[in-house]
Amino acid sequence: MRNLLVLLVLSFSIWGCGSSVDTSNFTAKQRLDYAMKLYHDENYLDAVQEFQAIILQYPGNEVVEDAQYYLAEARFQRHEYILAAYEFSKLIKMMPASKFVPDSQFMLAECYYKLSPDYRLEQKYTRKAIQEFQAFIDFFPTNEKVKEAEQKISEMNDKLAHKEYNTAQIYDIMEDYNAALIYYTLVVEDYHDTKYAPMALYDKIKLLASRNRNKEALEEISKFLERYPDNTNINELKELKTSLETKISSSK
Question: What is the pLDDT of residue 20?
Fold first, then answer.
C-alpha cells in the first residue's frame, strides 16, 4: 500500500512537470491552453516546444496564430533574440491580417534593440532596430507604443553619432585631418538632431582654424551660430569669428 502511495505521488509530480504531460489526446484549444500555462509560469523552454508542436500539428487552425506569436515571445523571454526576430518576422510575413502584427513589428524591432552593442562595436543591429522601429511608426502611427519607438530611435541615433564622433576624434589625434573632417561633417549632417552634432561642428571649426582654412572655418561658424544660438561655446566662436574676419581682411 505504501509503495502504491509513493507511485501515485511520483505520478502526480511528473504530471505537474510541463515536459512530461501527455498531450496526445488534447484538442487544439487544449494544447494551446496548456502551452500558454507553461508560458505564464515562465517555463519558456517547454513552452517553446509546445508552441512549435502546435504549429506543426494544426496547420490552418486558428490556434496557430497565437502559437506563432507566443513562440516568438517565449524566444524573446529566453534572450534568444535572433530566433525571436525570425519568429516575429515569420508571423508578419505569413499572417499579415493577424491581430498580432502590430505587436510583432514592435517586438521585431525590440529584438534588434536588445542586440545593439556598445557604440565602439559594429552597429548593424542598431541600424536594423532603427529601420524596424521606423516601419512600426509608419505602419501603425496611432499605436500607443509609437512614443517609445521614437525614443528608442533617438537613443540609437545618439549611439551611431557617438561612434562616428569618436572616429573623428581618433583621426584628429592621429593628425589625419582630412579623415577627421570627413567624420565631423558626417556627424553634423547625418545626426544633426543628436547632442554630438554641435560637438562635431565645434571641433570641425577649431580644426579648420588651426589649419589656417579661415574661410571654411567662418562658413562653419555661421552655420553654428544659426543652428545652436544657446550653446555654451557660442561666445568663444563669436570671438573666433571676429579674429578670423580680421585675419582675412588684413591679408587682402
Answer: 63
